[in-house]
Amino acid sequence: MELARIFQLEARDGDARAGRLLLPHGEVPTPVFMPVGTRASVKTLDCRDLRELEITMLLGNSYHLYLRPGLEVMRGSGGLHPFMRWEGPILTDSGGFQVFSLGDLRKLKEEGAEFRSHLDGSRHLFTPESVVEIQRALGSDIMMQLDECPPGDCDEAYASASLELSARWALRARRAWEESRPLHGHPQALFPIVQGGVHDHLRRRSMELLLAHDWPGVAIGGLSVGEAKPDMRRITALCGRELPVDKPRYLMGVGTPEDILESIALGVDMFDCVLPTRNARKGTLFTSLGRVNARSARHAMAFDQPLDPACDCFTCRHYDRAHLRHLFHVEEISAMRLGTLHNLRYYLKLMEGARAAIRAGCYPAYLQACLAPYRTAAPVV
Ligand SMILES: [Zn+2]
Predict the structure, then answer these.
(1) With left for phi above 0 and alpha for psi between -120 and 50, is residue 196 left, alpha or beta?
(2) In angstroms, how far is CA 239 from the centroid of its own chain?
(3) pTM score > 0.90 for this model?
(4) What is the pLDDT of residues 4-39, one digit of tens each?
């Protein structure tokens, strides 16, 4: 087995945890937010930006990279790290979420998930074994098992059958992981994914099946997919209490600043979400003053006012709200880039503050202070 121990737990404040991931491409302080680099790029940014933002770990999408550029290119390039000129750790998803988002274009079988490419309609089959092979070609530090991602509103019977299938797939992925070798000279960890919808006993069943084996870490899937917020919090808390203390916990696809900070309080260590980058390209920016709509005419004359006075990002150091609003208004390409630089820096600083607060034993006060502007009835700006 590879990388059986990749996590050091260093401090706790209530259920919140601060620690360190020990990965082939570097150490990553946790809790960590991983920006999404879907197609071997964080949209609008380059590798110099990623370094200057002080990003510690990225997420890549197996589905997209499998289709384009494809495995031959990924193997030939030496893997995702040299291909995209990123030297830090990378986690790759299994492609399951993208495949199940295809709706009518996919078909589920015991063997795996059959789907038609969203690009050209060509037929493909993802199996637990083939997605390990894909992630071997990508050379990520952490690979994910193929799982079924049932819709957030599915009934109990569906959620039950689905988690059993995902657990069988986890064991098949595990065997493929144990029986294959890394292609790019460094070991790769594999995480299983806890499913079971919003049902406590199904989540417990999923954990029971998966945790009969030792894994480097565990992911919590099937949340933030349309379920009610109290359900999401309850299931996160349940997993936070019952997952092994000495393994990193990764809550997939979450989320807003509020969801992330609340989930850290419930014991989660790792996050990824397209929200800061996708919203940035549309002009929705996250700041220490709350959410800001950069397109709003109210910024038209806001000369010498940075987007966020508390932010040290390139955008906030060099531009005022008036210029930023103009760029978004006329749809300049640079608007998307400047917005992305800011939103990612805001998320990274939010996590840095969370780690410091957990170590100082004042995480609940930190959470309240950060979220207060987001909870006021009317946006500040
Ligand atoms: Zn900024």
Answers:
(1) left
(2) 17
(3) yes
(4) 699 999 999 999 999 999 999 999 999 999 999 999
